[in-house]
From TrEMBL:
Required for the assembly of axonemal inner and outer dynein arms. Involved in preassembly of dyneins into complexes before their transport into cilia. Residues 144-458 form the Dynein assembly factor 3 C-terminal domain. It comes from Onychostoma macrolepis. The keyword Amino-acid biosynthesis does not apply. Keywords: Cilium biogenesis/degradation, Cytoplasm. Residues 15-111 form the DUF4470 domain. One of its GO terms (cellular component) is dynein axonemal particle. The lineage of its organism: Eukaryota, Metazoa, Chordata, Craniata, Vertebrata. This is Dynein axonemal assembly factor 3.
Length: 474
């Protein structure tokens, strides 16, 4: 298999991770779970799954600061969008509806018109908040901090958000863009693509423990890019947050092409839909799973949002005591039908159009404030510079690195980690275009890089999706 084809399947932009959400502070990772002031560095995580999952394990007295480095500003923009949706208050959107909207934006190339309105409202408010940081160099929400990005990077974020809010007047058909990627990836196998899809599912994903991904849902996603259909409706509107620009060389000139350049093989089900603490969701009948990856994703994301709501409070009600406990348990049952006639659309936040923009901004960012939790975004090129900045020396309790960015790790990593730090690296098990030999070789190379950086492999590896290392004692 050629390298070109391998890259083509996974894409050149990582919109979601190639492994399930993990609490990065568990005893499985650290031996003994750390408490107090905690710092985590995410390198190329692509989505907020680890952030949301880690929050669920925090104690009342813990504080968590997550530092995020991505390899492009388009991925940073999407991380901000998904976090914004996660922090919408119950007054603006019910938990069940927020779960549906989040998963649509997260994993669908095409979304419903109502979801598009929510997306446009969210990016408009994010654009406004980042514009404010350009003038005051402060963050406009206690949990989301973009002030550490360079001015040109924040300008780029605003440009991206405005493009998502007001896309080109004649948008390309997303289905045609998706189909062109599939044709390029499969080549002469395109006419027998359903057989290729079935092989990837049964011989690769199912063999890797992802039996809950159903053939019907997987094939539909491989055909159209639509992974989550939780409501009856028309999924025909382009999800602008999954479109990006790629530069090609054409006859000596560089040509920028806007399209979908992410994963078309592994699926967005991996982040939230292949593992669950609710064993009822893993029951089988006639040797077939009764619930599928979409159902599990919905239950898992709803449980995460329930945890956020118990730890968080609305900015508009920040003086009122939060009577809910700041810990939560996994959802015990299947998501029930919910009546949402009284739900106000997220785009209706009662903003008076005559208000001053600054006053509008205060209302528009009526998001949950999570007690003791902060997410800061760092420049894409900052990883190699962190060891030379005093504020980051011996700071991080856990560092997570994706498979796509592991090549950026080096021996200086040790200087920014706490004495009992853990290093979690995503392996290539779910990069389906790789052979077993390539996957095994990648795992060996990851171990070499970690050992060269001053870390040693732990002996309590709970899965082969992530490699876990602990810092060697001085």
């Amino acid at each position: 298999m050629s390298v070109g084809r391998t890259v083509e399947g996974a894409g050149c932009v990582t919109w979601w991770g190639f492994g399930p959400a993990r609490d990065l502070l568990t005893s499985d990772t650290h031996g003994v779970r750390p408490h107090g002031e905690l710092n985590i560095l995410l390198v190329g995580s692509a989505d907020p799954r680890h952030i949301l999952k880690t929050i669920t394990g925090l104690m009342d007295t813990d504080t968590l600061h997550v530092w995020v480095i991505e390899n492009s500003m388009e991925v940073v923009a999407r991380q901000l969008l998904l976090l914004y949706l996660s922090l919408l208050t119950p007054e603006n959107m019910s938990l069940h509806k927020k779960t549906e909207v989040f998963l649509e934006v997260f994993g669908n190339s095409e979304i419903r018109k109502e979801t598009e309105e929510t997306l446009k409202h969210a990016v408009a408010q994010l654009s406004l908040s980042i514009t404010n940081t350009l003038s005051s160099d402060s963050h406009t929400h206690p949990c989301l901090d973009t002030s550490l990005l360079k001015f040109k990077e924040r300008d780029e974020l605003v440009r991206i958000f405005k493009l998502w809010e007001r896309p080109p007047s004649v948008p390309e058909s997303v289905r045609k863009v998706w189909d062109a990627r599939v044709r390029q990836h499969l080549g002469t196998r395109y006419d027998s693509r359903h057989g290729c899809f079935d092989w990837d599912l049964t011989m690769k994903l199912h063999q890797s423990g992802c039996g809950v991904i159903s053939k019907h849902q997987y094939v539909k996603w491989r055909e159209s890019g639509v992974a989550f259909e939780m409501r009856e409706g028309l999924y025909q509107t382009a999800n602008q947050s999954l479109l990006s620009t790629r530069v090609f060389n054409h006859r000596g000139d560089q040509v920028a092409v806007r399209g979908y350049w992410g994963d078309i093989v592994s699926s967005p089900y991996l982040s939230f839909g292949i593992e669950t603490e609710n064993k009822n969701l893993l029951k089988k009948q006639n040797n077939q799973y009764m619930k599928m990856a979409q159902d599990i994703s919905e239950v898992n994301v709803l449980a995460l949002f329930e945890c956020l709501s118990t730890r968080g409070s609305s900015l508009l009600n920040k003086d009122e005591p939060n009577q809910l406990s700041s810990w939560c348990k996994p959802t015990d049952g299947i998501i029930e039908e919910e009546t949402i006639q009284n739900d106000a659309p997220a785009c209706q936040t009662d903003i008076d159009p005559e208000q001053h923009p600054a006053e509008q901004q205060t209302q528009a960012l009526d998001l949950l404030t999570l007690s003791g939790v902060k997410v800061s975004f760092l420049s894409p090129d900052l990883l190699s510079k962190l060891p030379f900045k005093n504020k980051y020396r011996s700071l991080f309790n856990t560092i997570f690195c994706s498979a796509s960015m592991v090549h950026q790790l080096d021996s200086s990593l040790r200087e920014i980690t706490a004495p009992d730090a853990a290093l979690v690296i995503e392996l290539a098990n779910f990069l389906l275009d790789l052979s077993k030999e390539q996957v095994s070789g990648f795992a060996d190379r990851v171990k070499e890089i970690a050992e060269e950086s001053g870390f040693t492999a732990t002996h309590n590896q709970s899965s082969d999706v992530y490699a876990i290392f602990t810092r060697k004692q001085d």
